[in-house]
Amino acid sequence: MLANSYRLRLFAASLLIALLGTLSTAQAKRASQDSGSATTVVIDAGHGGYDRGGIPGQQVAEKDMTLDVAQRLKRVLAAGGYRVVMTRDSDVFVSLGGRVAIANSYPNALFVCIHFNSAKRMGAGGIETYFYSRDSLPLASAIHYFVAGGAPSSNRGVRRRGYYVLRKTNIPAVLVECGFLTNPTEAAYAQTASYRQKLAEEIAAGVHGRNSVTSALTTTRVATGENIPLQPYIDQTKVAKSERPRSKRSHKKSARRKKSSSKPAESKTKAASKDQEG
Ligand SMILES: [Zn+2]
């Protein structure tokens, strides 16, 4: 028995050593990536100015929450040695074209759009992260891994969608929906500074881990076929049809609607679309 437990401990120790070896290799790789010229991150706080974001009558203005998280993210990333550019740093309106132009003027940068979700159905909740280009998937997976992992909200997955700001940017671009402001629980979290700080730190962790989270962890916990659908978004929360009318989505200019190839999926997508706003 003694020999067995000794062997077991020896085995556990060698596993640990192997694991540490992998981690230090990843850290070294990351350090070499980040050395030299600092990585630039363009942070895009959703909405602003007359564009409050969210849905009509929404109590908590999305534009205030996105700006606060963006500014916190700026501080966290700057402290981590990143060069940070903000598409807006105050309560002003910036057009989507303007946001994209800023992002594209930094060819080696990363683009992170911060939004909160909204729905007429109060129960709708969760974290979801969007990407469009294949090059953006590692960043989306990493940000989602940390944000969804650190949030009390449900995990709505990483999704591919042709939002204007994702489609028109030439650099890795991710849009993270940090919870539903129309959900009482998630809105309460969002209104606490400590939670917004946590969101910022989780997003920063995703930026930092964008090249190391993609492998083992991602394939098991994030990048499954289930939660990175390349087909149009189909809502799992089964929203009633009565909630369907929702026309104020122009600010997102989703490319999805222009493609009418798959009609059944398209109609489902439309029915579900009020559950997420961007
Ligand atoms: Zn939004």
Structure overview:
There is one protein chain. This protein is an alpha/beta fold and 278 residues long. Helices cover 42% and strands 13% of the residues. The chain has helices at residues 2-34, 62-79, 96-104, 137-150, 164-167, 184-190, 193-208, 216-221, 263-272, and strands at residues 40-45, 83-86, 110-117, 127-131, 155-160, 173-180. The chain has a 6-stranded mixed β-sheet with strand order 2-1-3-6-4-5, sandwiched between helices. Strand 4, helix 4 (137-150) and strand 5 form a beta-alpha-beta unit. The protein is globular. Mean pLDDT is 77; it is low at 15-36 and 215-277. Zinc ion (ZN) binds next to loops. Residues 46-47, 53, 62, 115, 277-278 line the site of zinc ion.
Write the layout of secondary structure elements.
Layout: H1 2-34, E1 40-45, H2 62-79, E2 83-86, H3 96-104, E3 110-117, E4 127-131, H4 137-150, E5 155-160, H5 164-167, E6 173-180, H6 184-190, H7 193-208, H8 216-221, H9 263-272
Parallel strand pairs: 1-2, 1-3, 3-6, 4-5
Antiparallel strand pairs: 4-6
The protein binds zinc ion.
Zinc ion is lined by residues 46-47, 53, 62, 115, 277-278.
